[in-house]
From TrEMBL:
Residue intervals of the Mur ligase C-terminal domain: 311-424
Pathway field: Cell wall biogenesis; peptidoglycan biosynthesis
Location within or outside the cell: Cytoplasm
Catalytic activity, reaction form: UDP-N-acetyl-alpha-D-muramoyl-L-alanine + D-glutamate + ATP = UDP-N-acetyl-alpha-D-muramoyl-L-alanyl-D-glutamate + ADP + phosphate + H(+)
Residues covered by the Mur ligase central domain: 109-289
Sequence similarity: Belongs to the MurCDEF family.
Enzyme Commission no: 6.3.2.9
Organismal lineage: Bacteria, Pseudomonadati, Bacteroidota, Cytophagia, Cytophagales
Protein source organism: Splendidivirga corallicola
Function comment: Cell wall formation. Catalyzes the addition of glutamate to the nucleotide precursor UDP-N-acetylmuramoyl-L-alanine (UMA).
Pfam families, per the entry: Mur_ligase_C, Mur_ligase_M, MurD_N
GO terms, molecular function: UDP-N-acetylmuramoylalanine-D-glutamate ligase activity
Protein name: UDP-N-acetylmuramoylalanine--D-glutamate ligase
Keywords (A to Z) from UniProt: ATP-binding, Cell cycle, Cell division, Cell shape, Cell wall biogenesis/degradation, Cytoplasm, Ligase, Nucleotide-binding, Peptidoglycan synthesis
Keyword Cell division: yes
């Protein structure tokens, strides 16, 4: 219905994108954000004559909505959203809203960890193979903003559970589910089953002609499928042929058996990403690209120009044969598990921040095997110290990222790696994980400059 009253809750990237699309489609639009808007977003809304408020939610205006498009950062449990739902006003995500206005095909990707890398890689493989493809969701520009012009035949979407919770009629043509480990459980009544169900919303509305790629070695994914058979065209990924995956690892070769007529192989040496977790990401991305129509030769060529996202196992610098790696995006234990397993060299591990209810037992063996020293970077490091005091010979604490790096360098020998992989949120000392990663990189470069001047 045209000229509906659409209210947008949240004035970030997704909210402003939804407002622009709603305006372009002739709706009466009002945007409300309890926080202050950025100067850029405020100017965009004014330029397009979109009514908005900031610093307050005016309920009498909001409750006039026929549909509310909610930012994924706003929990469903806050009083305002509860009131909106009690009035039977539909509350949807920006992705759900945008999908109503495009006939493009969707490659949708989710998982607790690895989804950004997999999304960027899938997008890169398709774009470099000549497909007319857009990038959206948690990366790239807002999907809704892109759909205003709707110039793409395909969109590769990184989707969080928060976005999936607001999606009802959306249908993916290809869906990827990488892993499910406990995270953000405060948004799911501290119930892992609720979080698992949220992740599996990615396949809702799919049918037997749509492709579902998933990591079957993950016990939460495997367990859900056993109890809840899914009626889609399934392609399980595994690190072992014995587990019966359609795509699997065999003797440093990725083997793809994605259909009866399409068997191909790729040696792991062609893959620019470190760590076995990135083999999973790669298997998923390559399989999706093949389904869309990319050739193996196109995919191999595209690997040569791929660069991973910042702050995820990102090489920063090597100083006197000591390597610095920025993995600031690793804000949970599962992400750190992947990081620790990506290196054979001894590690000086920098971790800490705001604990998210972490269980460090799952990484204790890897820490014992790889970590020679732990530097706790945070205001409250008791849990880290208690978990690893009997495992790591040297543990120290600091609230300064510069000291963490300089002290780590003093502890390292040639050939060692200094790894920032925090396992925790960043808000005690930094604005966000990006700020933490950027400060890490700047401090490393300052250390290099200081050492070079001293020579």
């Amino acid at each position: 219905m045209m000229d509906e009253k659409i209210v947008i809750i949240g004035g970030g990237e997704s909210g402003v994108g939804a407002a622009l699309l709603a305006k372009a489609k002739g709706h009466d639009v009002f945007l409300s954000d309890i926080n202050s808007l950025s100067d850029e977003n405020r100017n965009v809304l004014r330029e397009h004559d979109i009514a908005f408020e900031e610093g307050v939610h005016t309920e009498e205006k909001i409750f006039q909505a026929r549909t509310v498009v909610k930012s994924p950062g706003v929990p469903d449990g806050v009083p305002l959203i509860r009131k909106i739902k009690s009035l039977k006003i539909p509350v949807i995500s920006e992705i759900e809203f945008a999908a109503r206005f495009t006939r493009a095909k969707f490659i949708a990707i989710t998982g607790t960890n690895g989804k950004t890398t997999t999304t960027l890689l899938t997008y890169h493989l398709l774009k470099e193979s000549g497909f007319n493809v857009g990038l959206a969701g948690n990366v790239g520009e807002s999907l809704a903003k892109q759909v205003v012009q709707d110039e793409f035949d395909y969109y590769v979407l990184e989707l969080s559970s928060f976005q999936l919770d607001g999606m009802f009629d959306f249908k993916a043509d290809v869906a990827i589910l990488l892993n499910i480990t406990p995270d953000h459980l405060d948004r799911y009544d501290d119930n892992l089953d609720n979080y698992i169900k949220s992740k599996f919303r990615i396949i809702q509305n799919m049918d037997v002609s749509d492709k579902f790629i998933y990591y079957q070695d993950d016990p939460n994914i495997h367990g859900y499928i056993i109890k809840n058979p899914v009626h889609v065209d399934r392609y399980p990924i595994s690190l072992s042929k014995e587990k019966g995956g359609s795509v699997y690892l065999k003797d440093n070769v990725l083997v793809f058996e994605v259909s009866g007529k399409d068997h191909f192989e790729m040696e792991t040496r062609h893959i620019p990403l470190k760590g076995f977790h990135n083999l999973i990401n790669t298997m998923a991305a390559v399989t999706a690209a093949k389904f869309i129509g990319a050739s193996l030769d196109q995919i191999k060529r595209a690997f040569g120009t791929f660069k991973n996202a910042a702050h995820r196992l990102e090489f920063v610098e090597s100083i006197n044969e000591v390597t610095f790696i920025n993995d600031s995006k690793a804000t949970n234990v599962d992400a750190v598990y992947y990081a620790l397993g990506s290196f054979d060299q001894p590690l000086v591990w920098i971790a800490g921040g705001v604990d998210k209810g972490n269980d460090y037992d799952q990484i204790s063996d890897l820490v014992r095997k790889h970590v020679k020293a732990l530097i706790c970077l945070g205001k409250d490091n008791r849990k880290l110290r208690e978990a690893f005091s009997s495992i790591v010979d040297h543990i120290e604490e600091t609230e300064s990222i510069e000291l963490a790096i300089s002290n780590g360098y003093e502890l390292a020998n040639k050939g060692d790696v200094i790894l920032l992989s925090p396992a925790c949120a960043s808000f005690d000392l930094f604005k966000n994980y990006e700020d933490r990663g950027e400060q890490f990189k700047k401090a490393v470069l300052k250390l290099k400059e200081r050492i070079n001047q001293a020579v």
